[in-house]
Amino acid sequence: MKTKIFLNLAVKDLNRSVVFFTQLGFSFNQKFTNEKGTCLVIDENINVMLLVEEFYQTFTHKEICNTATTSEALISISLESRDKVDEMIEKAIKAGGLEYREKNDYGWMYQRTFFDPDGHHWEVFFMEESQIPEMS
């Protein structure tokens, strides 16, 4: 079995999150879905568990962060092109997300950022790896 990644995020309203990420073009693994959470499929081996806060809290004794004032993680996803990055941001805004910063264009990497309805920080980017400058 290949290694899989399951990132877990606390959400206030599971249905709102499902609608939001569906509008961005993502699908869900129904084997890992019930009223307490769902499995957002990023790729074959990369998943995000969207867990209602009460259920998420059963996995930790720590306080759930307030995403309005605290950064918990930067979730970055590479896409196939600059156009795909722009499309994802447009979909995120239309679905109720918030574009966080101005786009960054480094020539070899194009990056844009949004917050989902729960305030989680998502960065989507296109990177032309053959154009990455050599580090000195």
From TrEMBL:
Keyword Oxidoreductase on entry: yes
SUPFAM superfamilies: Glyoxalase/Bleomycin resistance protein/Dihydroxybiphenyl dioxygenase (SSF54593)
Alphabetized Gene3D superfamilies for the sequence: 2,3-Dihydroxybiphenyl 1,2-Dioxygenase, domain 1
VOC domain segment(s): 3-127
One Pfam family cited in the UniProt record for this chain: Glyoxalase
The keyword Manganese appears for this protein: no
Alphabetic keyword roster: Dioxygenase, Oxidoreductase
A GO molecular function held by the record: dioxygenase activity
Stored PANTHER family: BLR2408 PROTEIN, BLR2520 PROTEIN
Protein name, entry field: Glyoxalase/bleomycin resistance/extradiol dioxygenase family protein
